[in-house]
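Structure request: SDR family oxidoreductase, Geochorda subterranea.
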Amino acid sequence: MTHSGKVAIVTGAGSGIGQATVLRLAREGARVVGCDVNPQGLAATRAKLEEAQLSATLLVADVARQEDVERVVAEAGRVDILANVAGIMDFFLPLDELDDATWQRVLSVNLDGVMRMTRAVLPRMREAGGGAIVTVASKASFSGGVSGAAYAASKHGVIGLVRHVAYFYGPLGIRSNAVLPGPVETGIGATAMPKSPWALERAKLAMATMPKSARPEEIAAIISWIASDEASFLNGALVTADGGWSAA
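Returned structure:
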């Protein structure tokens, strides 16, 4: 019962890492509020919770919409843990083929969504005297060749935001850290389907040493530990969880 008595918000709760994190934190005693734009995904998460005899509050919400963010945080009340998991891909589009709509949507979810959720919970964490924020970044946070331009830019930006929060709010008892997965068996779906054949061929060079995909549960376990009191001195850390890909 690592998180007994704590309240946690998990974004991207309808599939993959987010779904696994909802189940993990609920199993470890937290009261979990999960959100996702996909109601079918949330229904699948609810079924898994019921199968495991666990419970969580699941809301249809878009982290790119301020009113949705406010609704999720209001539902949670006190917030001890925020897991920023929601994210989408960018069809592996290189910059000269990137359209404004794809750029804006990817940034609105992957970077603006992290900013909005984090900004919304900070006052509550300050009032409570502390909290833990864990944000899912990516191998693409330090690479330019494993995604399209929009995804790479969004995940590079996430690192700056994570470190900003760690530095400015650490003295107030609020920890901010990031997990950097490589390939994961997730439901990131259609936005991962390449639209540019030559760019995909170029990206394959950077992926030549890519290991097998992680299971979402393996990343959720890392998120849970970083958010726990056992990791109380971890702040501003970038925890690589890519099976050794970045070591190549």
